Target: Aldehyde oxidoreductase
Amino acid sequence: MKYMTVKGEKLSQLGLGTWGMGEKASKREEEIAALRCGLSSGVNVIDTAEMYGEGQAESLVGEAIKDLDRSQLFLISKFYPWHASPREQKKSLAASLKRLGTDYLDLYLLHWKSDYPLAETVKGLQDLQAAGLIRHWGVSNFDTADMQELVDIAGEGAVFANEDLYNLDKRGVEYDLLPWQKQHGIAFIGYSPFNSGNGQSIPVKASLKQIADKRGVSVHQVLLAWTMRTGQVLTIPKASSVDHMRANLAAADLVLTAGELAALDRDYLPPKSKQPLESI
Model:
């Protein structure tokens, strides 16, 4: 398992995404087994949100981790933009903690930009942090200018992470956002490494298929390994079965060569200019 260190936290580069999980009783046992498989194999990051099944994903995670050492886990959840006021944040957090069966979160994120004043949202998060209810805080679906505004409000070193769409076909953040976050010591969490969150998929071009065939792995494993190639991105694919989880774990140990990366760059061009932030 590959790990990265952010503000003293040792985090597995492969996290466990949970979007769409916990919503079907017939799949619950299999989904819990998948999460536990990942956690028993060195993954320590779980990403969820109050939005996912209106709390059903959080409840699933809570069941999956109930007998585990909480101190060894890094739990992330997110709150709706319309819960961005300090009062609503506190209520949302209380509900999330209850569903997760824990008394604190390791990271709490604003799910996307809110109409509520950002300074007040930051104040609410800082209050939750001071109360010991969250250890770190950050945002999701923020672009470079948004992040600069956030740091101007909160100060350097206050923001832990920003979570955005990132995969081989959606590389716009590489132009300025990823370098900016690295410069400011803010972790980047990439969601939808397969671009499947909106029902679409990444076109399989020649280089991608050739690499997968030559390595004897799946296209999805190459896609996942690619997101982790720099050591700067924490990627959070969803795996709803043990078999899928094991495939993701194997991908986490797959190291692509410089030649393979260059071939992928020729088929999936890195950005040469600023791109609008994409999201799902």
User: Anything to note?
Assistant: The CA atoms of residues 191 and 262 lie 23 Å apart. The first helix runs from residue 28 to 40. The mean pLDDT is 97. The two ends are 27 Å apart (CA to CA).
